Amino acid sequence: xxxxxxxxxxxxxxxxxxxxxxxxxxxxxxxxxxxxxxxxxxxxxxxxxxxxxxxxxxxxxxxxxxxxxxxxxxxxxxxxxxxxxxxxxxxxxxxxxxxxxxxxxxxxxxxxxxxxxxxxxxxxxxxxxx
Length: 130
Known about the structure:
Layout (H helix, E strand, L loop, with lengths): L14 H19 L6 H27 L5 H14 L5 H4 L3 H17 L7 H7 L2
Helix pairs in contact: 1-2, 1-3, 3-5
C-alpha cells in the first residue's frame, strides 16, 4: 500500500476555483485540437500551447489531491474531473476494472444526492438525470 501525503491547503486555490479552471482548460484543449494551421510555425506554436494547457491540468489535479473537500459538491467536482478524464462515453465502454466502476458509481450517487447535474458530463446528464 502506498502512503499519500497529508492533505494540506495548496497555493492552487479552492476546489471550486480549480475545478472551473480545469473545465476552462478542457474546453480550450477541445477547441485547439480542432484548430487548423497553415504552416509549420503555427503548428509548433499550437503544440506548445496545448502542452502548456495539459501541464496546467496536471498541476490542478495535483493541487486537488492536496485539498480536502469540505462539501459533497466539492467531492463531486473532484469526481467530475476524474470522469471527464475518462472521456464522455457510456460507462460500460469506459471502465475495465471494478475499482474504476465503483468510482463511477460514487460519482453517479453524488450527482443524484446533490442534484447538481451541471457537474455531470453531457452523456451522464442525458443517461442519468431523471
